[in-house]
Design a protein that fits this description.
The chain is α+β, with helices and mostly antiparallel strands. The chain has one domain (2-60): 2-Layer Sandwich (Alpha-Beta Plaits), CATH 3.30.70.920. The protein is built from two helices and four strands; from the N terminus they run E-H-E-E-H-E. The protein has helices at 8-15, 42-53; strands spanning 2-3, 21-26, 33-37, 58-60. It has a two-stranded antiparallel sheet with strand order 1-4. The N and C termini lie far apart (24 Å).
Length: 70
């Protein structure tokens, strides 16, 4: 996700309140933060991403589904 300048700490604080988020990482490059979210179903993932989309300070998100981990 891309974050409005100066909003990173506030966004992280709000992300920590959403169940299912297992990792929050501040990164460099095209995006500012990457999170990992676990959900039992696509419906559950949809509900959680809707909570993320309304967090003040988040300018843009991109969602990718992990098909397989090694």
């Amino acid at each position: 996700m891309t974050i409005k300048l100066g909003s990173t700490n506030d966004v992280i604080k709000k992300l920590k309140q959403i169940s299912g988020i297992t990792s929050i990482a501040v990164i460099t490059g095209e995006y500012d933060i990457i999170i990992q979210l676990e959900a039992e179903s696509l419906e559950e993932m949809y509900e959680r991403t809707q909570k993320i989309h309304v967090i003040d300070g988040i300018e843009e998100t991109t969602t990718s589904i992990i098909q397989k981990e090694f």
